[in-house]
Amino acid sequence: MNILIIRFSSFGDVVLSTAFVRAVRKKYPEANLYFLTKNSFAEVFENNPNLTKIYTFSDGKNFVNLLKNLKKQNKFDIVYDLSVNLKSLIASFLLGEKTFRVPKNVLQRRWIVATKNVKNPYKTIKQNYSYFLGFENIFETEVFLTDLEKLKAREILTYDDKKIYVGINTGAKWETKRWILQNYVDVIAKLNETNCCVVLFGDKNETEFNREIAKNFENSRDVFDLTNKLTKREFFATASLMNCFLTTDSAGLHIAQTFSIPTVAIFGPTVKNFGFWHAKQCDVLVESDMKCRPCSLHGNDFCREKHFMCMKNISAKQVLEAIFRIIKQEKL
């Protein structure tokens, strides 16, 4: 049996899809399992033993050519569409004998945005993936690192086993998901007073923001700004070395949880009821109880209420308390 899984974007969603890959492999242990995604996300699946092959494309023209080439081959027995958009609809129609579209619960999330009702029970994305395939147990995300990648990460950080490492992912796709710059500075300043090393993560979109943070600690040997300096594989490997991870509602959250790193997550315009918060025992969600939350499905580039209090109300003290609670447990 040949099975194709489709997930085009975004980075965090593609990381989450590795849980679905695990579940499909469990359901069909003897099948050939393929994945179709964008070139920029192929690194998520490197060395993944559950996959037979990864198909990727870079742009629209490349996507069309890829579909033509795949169509010349035998159709896939089953296609699982995790993207559920026009492009994935076309791909699954052309390539699959039988297609299953995995619900993204968009209507449910839109209802939460419209009603602000965050009290009803909800399923996480991982639960949704597992239940869709008929499993009661939840499959976790996974990224497979090589020993060489792990060694290189230690070299990048000049890793010291005697120190506590706190990773900070400041960015998100939407501006309103980003916490206050000065609060990050205050948090790092307090962490610098302890035996903590702080590592700033982010892509090119966070370069300027993180530079503004890092310039407050130019004389510190314990603050590393790795923003836009790492490949995705290097990001995975260095993030896996953290003792604690502070992040927004973004791909950084899912990457930290993939490696079972105790995580402090700051949620502003979005809420856990959307299904992207998969808390483990040591994880802490920090949020502000606002009547206008959630204001959108994914966040916005500006606050519609013009006050941004969902983020401003979250203090550096709250976040530090959560981080120190985790660090204390790490030392035990």
Structure description:
This protein is α/β, with parallel strands linked by helices and 332 residues long. Helix content is 38%, strand content 16%. It has helices spanning 11-27, 60-72, 86-95, 106-115, 125-132, 147-157, 181-192, 207-214, 232-239, 251-258, 309-312, 316-331; strands at residues 2-6, 32-38, 53-57, 78-81, 99-101, 164-169, 196-201, 223-225, 244-248, 263-267, 284-287. The strands form 2 sheets. A 6-stranded parallel beta sheet has the order 8-7-6-9-10-11, sandwiched between helices. A 5-stranded parallel beta sheet has the order 3-2-1-4-5, sandwiched between helices. Strand 9 (244-248), helix 10 (251-258) and strand 10 form a beta-alpha-beta unit. Helix 1 (11-27) runs parallel beside helix 5. The longest helix is centred in the N-terminal third of the chain and has 17 residues, at 11-27. 38% of the residues are buried.
Identify the notable features of this structure and list them briefly.
332 residues; 6-stranded parallel sheet; alpha/beta
Give a short synopsis of this structure.
The chain contains twelve helices and eleven strands. The protein is 38% helix and 16% strand.
